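TA notes, week 10

Several of you asked for a full example with nothing omitted. So below is the full record: structure tokens for the whole chain, then the designed sequence directly under it. When grading your own attempts, check the secondary structure regions first.
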């Protein structure tokens, strides 16, 4: 089962490294930070950056959170990393776990094959390369409508509609800075901001109402991202 451990923003990787060092893989199957790709415009060029999707959150897969808690609370340095000095394990709902796995696994078949290869490499697994939400490719029609290829934003739309109890998945159409007609999440809607290359949605996830921001790229950006 997945659990979330909250830490001080900016200390996520330090906590993961500390857990690996202290526990050495005993009592848990994985410990990681979910990250996301975004594009930032600098000097006329789009630069790819990767940052935590949920700042201050570390994810752990374990069947024995009590044992992990007892082992880690005896290490003084973790009190500073956690900020509040206390470990709090919050269970992730199964539906949300599946959604987050799909969110990180979305992309074309070649990329998925590459990721499967990475999973077989323990060093890459420890580095958390599996848990990255990639960019979703978008295209702009003549009337200004924005459509997306298969990717994280498709998974987000499907998940938000599932949370609303909608069985029939409808095609989501987004316009720059304007709400979509479908894909509502917890009362909010998916919105695209093309000039900054991201889309956002209000969603209920991990026990809180959140505004989730996912990166997009346009076809014309091909070859211009560094």
């Amino acid at each position: 089962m997945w659990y979330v451990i909250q830490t001080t923003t900016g200390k996520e990787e330090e906590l993961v490294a500390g857990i690996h060092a202290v526990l050495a893989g005993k009592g848990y199957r994985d410990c990681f930070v979910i990250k996301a790709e975004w594009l930032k415009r600098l000097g006329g060029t789009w630069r790819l950056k990767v940052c935590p999707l949920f700042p201050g959150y570390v994810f752990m897969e374990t069947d024995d959170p009590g044992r992990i808690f007892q082992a880690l609370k005896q290490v003084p340095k973790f009190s500073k990393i956690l900020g509040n000095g206390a470990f709090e394990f919050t269970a992730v709902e199964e539906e949300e776990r599946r959604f987050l796995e799909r969110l990180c696994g979305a992309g074309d078949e070649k990329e998925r094959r590459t990721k499967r290869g990475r999973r077989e490499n323990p060093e890459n697994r420890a580095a958390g390369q599996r848990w990255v939400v990639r960019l979703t490719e978008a295209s702009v029609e003549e009337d200004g409508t924005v459509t997306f290829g298969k990717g994280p934003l498709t998974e987000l739309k499907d998940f938000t509609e599932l949370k609303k109890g909608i069985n029939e998945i409808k095609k989501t159409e987004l316009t720059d800075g304007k709400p979509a007609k479908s894909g509502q999440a917890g009362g909010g809607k998916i919105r695209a901001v093309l000039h900054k290359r991201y889309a956002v949605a209000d969603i209920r996830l991990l026990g809180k109402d959140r505004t989730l921001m996912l990166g997009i790229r346009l076809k014309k950006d091909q070859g211009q991202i560094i």
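Residues 1-134 form one domain. Use that as a sanity check on your answer.
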